[in-house]
Amino acid sequence: MLGSSMYALRLQRVELKHASRNGIFRRWMSVRPQDIGISEVRKKVTIQSLYQNKANGTPISMLTAYDYPTAVACSSHPVDITLVGDSLAQVCLGYPSTTHLSVAEMIHHTRAVARGTTHPLLIADMPFGSYHTGIEDALRNAVRMVQDGHVEGVKMEGGQELTEIVRRLSSVGIPVMAHVGLLPQRHIAMSGYKVQGRDRNGAKRILADALALQEAGAFSIVLEAIPKELGKYITEKLEIPTIGIGAGPHTDGQVLVWDDMMGTWNGHKAKFVRRFANAKHERDSGVEAYCEAVKSRSFPDENTESYSLDKNEWAQFLEDQKSQ
Ligand SMILES: Nc1nc(=O)c2c([nH]1)NC[C@@H]1CN(c3ccc(C(=O)N[C@@H](CCC(=O)O)C(=O)O)cc3)CN21
Ligand SMILES: CC(C)C(=O)C(=O)O
Q: Which pathway does the UniProt entry assign to this protein (predicted)?
């Protein structure tokens, strides 16, 4: 056991050396997936490979993750991009809105996700307020996300007003994913979570935003809650891959929130959500069965789930107790 794990460690180190010598050093590229319980080796997803997806019409799968186990689950399947979305605020931390999430809280979670991430590209949301107080603040916070949070790129919500920030981050090599349409960080200003671009002028504005963000250097863009016709049109107009959530079937990729996809989210179910599992049912029946077993003393089983000591040792122990 010890021997084999030391061997794996040594091998890992050798591979790391090899990778860095060849100039293809990437944090996880050379980590043996078995180390975190992943059996299949997949090629690291890169911005270039995402462009190839768009070119050859292979859909891009993006899923949110908020901690180590969800990151490992993404890394165990052909998820192309793992997103530490700021939906973290609501679905994991119990805040009423994404606007409550701090950079420190986000980084705490991105570090855990990074530890469980192998082949997927790792992107995280810039929290509300972390890119609104000036270009240098945005850059400083993005650097924190990369350096302390271990993410490979950042996502930010907004349109043409963000182009200078996108340009600055891109210019120093921090990949930026843009996000237009429904902007959850602005739900108060937008009077709720509403489908965007439903009239001619709204649609024009979203297209203009998407084009401006591409021109500023965004490597990809999320289209949230817009009509499917517009999702298709923007996807055809842009050179960068579009990732839709409630933007119809014609975007270059799709994203869903982990808890929506798993069927564990108790809150509102948006029209664009499909539950691909009913993990809530499994989870609840597990908790119920556990409580029942404890209360009925059927758990733990005396023989298979408990420890014992040698009969003679125990007799001696009791004997010693008498003379105390
Ligand atoms: N669980 C969860 N899933 C998400 O997709 C998500 C979050 N949380 N939290 C952060 C944001 C908020 N999002 C939301 C929240 C609500 C709607 C929603 O209720 N949409 C209405 C549209 C109504 C209309 O304009 O016609 C819907 O019924 O689909 C959409 C996106 C997306 N993000
Ligand atoms: C749903 C995705 C796109 C997101 O922004 C989030 O998880 O916060």
A: Cofactor biosynthesis; (R)-pantothenate biosynthesis; (R)-pantoate from 3-methyl-2-oxobutanoate: step 1/2
